[in-house]
Design goal:
Helix content is 47%, strand content 1%. It has 14 helices and two strands; from the N terminus they run ααααββαααααααααα. The chain has a two-stranded antiparallel ribbon. A hairpin with a 6-residue loop joins β1 and β2. 43% of the residues are buried.
């Protein structure tokens, strides 16, 4: 049961994307329900969506100065920090936008055309590949031949330990890239969950209790996995890990018990969950750090719902 005050908070009309996803994903209302239609209709003109689309170059990309190199990037596949094209497309997808919007379609088509013949976008970054696959599935490109190339690359790219890495590094897998690969598998659906690459990847997470090191199960892998992070990007936050594993049917796995306890301890007395980290460079302003957050609360509730 969801407390009535929290449900009313998530359903506020001032945040139509949260409202829409609460109605459809948390409450399970059908697409034609009046409440769903009203929220969906309001999304394209919401402040969150306009704050992203109004920054888009008319040709279909977002530019940003790379804080490390100071180079302006985004017209190609190179990216800056949380504000170039693949980030913005992901934000729009999570806000409930898709390819039926002309601006979104223009940017999505252009970015898909930048893909390499083997399905890669940039230096075989597994975090980028997995992230982009999820984005384009949400945007409505499941049957697109370009996206299918990237899915095949995902299936063929796992490491010996069951996780994922990239051309930039050698050795054991990276939990950040591995999580993005898992989110892609999650969105691809059950028909992919039995694939050997996905089964090994699930083992990679479950054997470490979701967020801990294999060598010492008392130690979290890094700071990310203990943190409430949104929007989702290349970091591997606590809610995202549990949400994905729960959606894939493993939420009740006893090995995740300590991670669930960590998440439960984050809630305030009313049951709201805080936003602990969000990128300042992002054009999508999801809330203030340290404050109760609708998106964090929604995803925590969705993760719990998948268990139940």
């Amino acid at each position: 049961m969801i407390p009535g005050d929290i449900l009313a908070w998530l359903l506020e009309a001032s945040d139509p994307s949260v409202c829409y996803r609460t109605h459809t994903e948390l409450l399970g209302l059908p697409p034609g329900a009046p409440e769903v239609v009203a929220a969906k209709t309001a999304i394209p003109m919401s402040a969150d969506v306009r704050g992203i689309l109004d920054r888009m170059n008319p040709a279909g990309y977002w530019l940003q100065k790379n804080p490390r190199t100071q180079a302006v990037v985004g017209e190609g596949v190179e990216y800056g920090s949380f504000a170039t094209t693949h980030f913005c497309l992901s934000y729009l997808a999570h806000l409930g936008m898709d390819r039926t919007d002309p601006q979104v379609a223009r940017a999505a088509e252009r970015y898909l055309d930048l893909m390499q013949p083997d399905g890669d976008w940039y230096r075989h970054l597994s975090c980028l590949t997995g992230y982009n696959i999820q984005t384009f599935l949400l945007l409505g490109y499941r049957e697109d031949r370009r996206l299918q190339r990237s899915v095949q690359l995902l299936l063929d790219s796992e490491r010996a330990d069951g996780g994922y890495l990239c051309d930039m590094h050698k050795g054991k897998s990276c939990i950040r890239g591995s999580l993005k690969a898992l989110t892609a598998f999650c969105e691809l659906g059950p028909q992919y969950w039995g694939h050997p690459s996905c089964r090994k990847l699930l083992g990679y997470f479950l054997e470490r209790g979701g967020i801990y090191t294999r060598k010492d199960p008392r130690l979290p892998v890094n700071k990310d996995v203990q943190t409430m992070i949104f929007p989702f990007h290349w970091r591997a936050g606590l809610v995202e890990i549990l949400y994905v594993l729960s959606r894939m049917g493993f939420g009740n796995d006893p090995r995740l018990g300590r991670a669930w306890k960590m998440l439960a301890a984050k809630a305030d007395p009313s049951g709201r969950y805080p936003l602990e980290w969000t990128p300042v460079q992002s054009p999508w302003k999801v809330g203030k750090r340290g404050q109760p957050n609708k998106w964090m609360t929604l995803y925590a509730l969705l993760a719990r719902k998948a268990i139940e």
